[in-house]
Amino acid sequence: MSLKTEVSFTLNGRAVQVTVPVDMNVLTMLRDELNMTGTKYACGEGECGACTVDVDGETINSCLMYAVDCEGRAITTIEGLRTADGLDPMQKAFVDHGAIQCGFCMPGMIMQAKHLVAKNPNMTDDDLRRGLEGNVCRCTGYYKVFDAVKDVVRGTAEAAE
Amino acid sequence: MTTVIEKDSIIGKRIPKPDAPDKAVGRTRYINDMELPLMLIGKILHTDRVHATIKSIDVSAARALPGVHAVLTADDVPESLKFGIARDNIPLKGGKVRCTRDEIAAVAAETEDIADQALKLIKVEYEDLPGLFDVHEALEDDAPQIHDDRPGNKGLAYSHHSGDLAAAEAESDIILENTFKVHYVTHCCMGTSAVLADFDADGKLTIYSQTQYPYNFKMDLAPALNIHPGDIRVIQPPVGGAFGSKLDVYPFEPICVLLARATQRPVKLVFSREEEFINAPTRQPVEIHLRSGVKKDGTMTFRHVNSLLNNGAYTSWGATTPYVMMRTFSSHFRLQAISYDAQAVYTNNPYAGSFRGYGNVQATYCTSIHADMMAEAVGMDPISFGIKNAQDEGEVTPQGAVLNDCVFAELLKIAGEKTDFVNKMKTYAAERDKPGRIKRGIGIASSIHNAGGAKIHKSDGCGTILKLDDYARATIITGASEIGQGIDAVLCQIISEELGIPVKDVTVVNNDSAIGPWDVGVHASRTTFIAGNSAQRAARRAKEQILNYAASRANVGAGELDLRGGHVVQSKDGVSVAKLDKVLREMHFKEDSELVMTTDYYEPPSEPEGENHVGDMSAAYSHAVHVVEAEIDTETGVITVEKITSVQDVGRIVNEMGLEAQIEGGIIMGLGYALSEELQIEDGYVRNPNFRDYKVMTAPEIPEMELHFVESQSSTGPLGAKGIAELPTIVIAPAVANALYNATGIRIFNPPLTPEKVARAIWERDQGHAQAAE
Amino acid sequence: MESITQPGIEAYEAPASIADAVQVLARGDVTVLAGGTDLTVQVDAGRITYGKTLMNIRRIAELQGVSEAGGRISIGALTTVTNILDDDALAQSVPVLRATADRFASMQIRNAATIGGNLVNASPAGDMIVPLLLLDADVELASWRDGAVSTRSVALKDFFTGPGKTVRADNELLTRVTFAKPAAGFAARFEKSGPRPALEISTVSAGVAGTLENGVLSNVRVVLGAVAPTPLRAAKAEAALEGKTLDGDTIAAGAAAACDDCTPIDDVRASAWYRHHLVRVFMERLLTDVAEN
User: Fold this and answer.
1) In chain B, what are the domains?
2) Who among C43, C56, C106 is closest to A68 (CB)?
3) pLDDT digit string (tens) for A8-62?
4) Is the ipTM of this complex over 0.95?
5) What one-character DSSP code corresponds to residue C196?
């Protein structure tokens, strides 16, 4: 059995404390210890992006980050985007544009898309495609995803006017 | 106050998938996410050999590990219980292993870690046997035998012959002859393979499965378990992609059930990505020797095909792909004669299943490249050549497919016009030998596919139960499975259209074999067509029932009424007679009431193949033409596909957004097949079981796509629709290969067209030129 | 033979200073965790087994960030690839670092992967190693000696000894990488194989640097990745180019010499033939680009 340690951090705006094996990754902690199964395992090697979460304003592959390293940090997962008013605008755009088919890659894709818009609201088409390079989708041809993100970018720009 | 409701239609609109919001917020629970009380984790020990005798297997230490509830080997499973298409597979292998996938032991433990540890404690002694990996070697007289009861290592065989081949050859002015070797690729479903098995106290099995064919799945699973199919209940939680990979029973499924039976606890088994790459089915690799004949005037004469399928160690649907391949070889272009033979050959490689396009991806790679070569050989452009040879409306193919609602020639014409194909092709060809490292090319490919199911079983049908409740909400219980492709939205639309209720007021239930009526499965581009027809018929029955009641109530003829906008209206002017929910309540809440609950079973007007594989096996056929425009870096060999123009006969657009999604996704899957995806198998082992080295298409690599939907209005499809999901994947790779030829003069007969392969071919050609010049 | 009874991790440490960290290292049998992007994969593949202590160094502020002093630029070991990509000042003075960072894996990996990790991991295909070798960088290694932090500097070109192997001793922590701020006129270029823009383990990566004056290239550095057990400075190519007029003949000679410098292998990603071929192609392209710009 691996050594365990306690880790405290903010998860989707709420303080959490959890005891984890020191070699456990964030993905396993979220899914197995905290029952937050929205974040998906699909490769375990940082090659597909299905496990993307936001840590302190940067997206990472949660399969590669160690749970112990969450100490003191703020983590946002797909479950954290939804508000009392309903779907986050990015989630809604993905639904409305038909970007979701089997949906397995989508939590990671949506987290990354949110991050891209937050980081650069004026992104070009190339920035968008490059920004999603680490998120594999096997169902769509990615265009519906592009359309959804662009729609949110337009909405954000209009709201800022 | 008078309410007037105009006639409206939801068909052709852009309708989001009803399950998308839950998927977007991370609420959807796939099997991978599920947990039942007292659930154990199952793990499989796969062999590390490719062909060996098992001398001993010692599981005592694994059994003794705390937290381990069961360790099973072949000794715990009667060997007579064989399953699979050719009944050559068993859940746990004893005696001998035949490929790197072979399952030799399985563990159920309280945690994944314990299960992993237990696997490491199992000691196996082997005596290696010579391995067979090449089909030709496996066919040699003195080759080792992989299965004692499959002499000569021969698996399934298929042939179709029609027309006078000798005469057709004699009439040909040009005969082309090439050997194509099409490769291993795999589905790469984002959700890895998963299953959860749970027995009730009465010994009945509930299996949470990703299967694409829940009803026959029971029949196929039962023999592996020695259980009655009727005692199996299949629940289908949402699935993280399928693409044909889940159309058979694979050993991990019965193994998980055996663990659940042994422990009397629910057991869940989920593959890691590495396990998925090694153990999930592949697309069928084939070596195809193709001879094609053509007359000087561009009339095609014959195709003569000999193919060898590397069957791997066991038989799944991959070995049956000749069934579809021969249809492509014998059709879409008119032939005087066709000779088709295919033989599956057992080797110690992994084995193939069905995969979107099912044989047709392989066949079309050959036919579309040969079409390009023939056109050039007779001095025609590929569009004119295609149109000259394209089969027409009403024509019957040599295998008996009746091409109703056929617009193939029109598709070719549109593709040519929309892309300025002929001019571009000439321009690029003229640039080919000029200096410059970047070359441009344009290429075309086309094919046919079944678009109204495929009668490979006794039935190709689908059942529907439709229920209307007292709020005028409809629940459609259908046999058809949802695997992300979007049948949920399509069925909601069809019910909405027929019953005049909002699309959001329709609920689809299709995830429990104890509730749903029979369906043959989600495959063969059949679901919109078959399940759609059944849904429409069930809805029309319900509508008739409602209108009859409403007519008697209003003392008018039922023919004068219609359902629109949640009301029963007068058809002539849309004036509301009553609100639909009120009518339904009246129908339900009375003595001798009649529930508005209808059923339908739709069996398409198709027939199973008879002798010589002749039969009109689909209720509709469709064609697609793709044009690829690409830039080739002649030094690095990188092909950058810049634009894909897709022209496809879709019958009729039902859900435009879902249609686009399926076609775009299908194209990109085909593009991966063309350019980068290859499961590298060396001496039976998978060399690249990860996304680092098995490269699927990513966002920056996606070309511009221009989609043209041609609506042929199928006379048999629901509202005129045809099945659409496979053709986009089928016709991409040869279009890329033909574009490469247009740009460089290089033909590649063994996809994928990787940078190295392209660079090497160009380099060798240039070396040859240099030597010739010396 | 993998032992089921391996002891596993017995201690977890997350020091806040270099001094604390090197004292942990001094105990021996420590696995260092930084961004985690390589460690997870290596452990899963069985290439790394955890030591008795897992030490997370991400809390050490001293290891963060980019600074400049005395004409030298210092990049802290924990600086992420995204930090480098987003650093406008760094991109101004050393454009090749941004150009390379832009071709590094995916954004999620760039957000986590650190410079120190990329160097210590010592992959023959490690992309960030290439520009740092072009810059003739040194790495600083800290250890605990006689009750104090002691450091030594090692030239990066001497740092790698084989795939996954470096001269770093088990008790040493890589703290930063430093290099002289390039003088005006210094040009450096990076190229790696595609077709994806970045999320590719390089089949071949290549870098060329030097100062071009009046058409003559001097102070030449040529670096090749994924074509030898370590990323390498291509000595023959450098000799073929040094002090020469950068014309077509020189470029061809430099590219040919680079092919002689490397010893690529056949593997799942490419054949040795293709790697040789790409080295020549990339060298010609990079040198042509230097000559033309």
Assistant:
1) 20-27+461-602 (3.30.365.10), 34-129+192-239+246-279 (3.90.1170.50), 286-454+610-769 (3.30.365.10)
2) C56
3) 999 999 999 999 999 999 999 999 999 999 999 999 999 999 999 999 999 999 9
4) yes
5) S
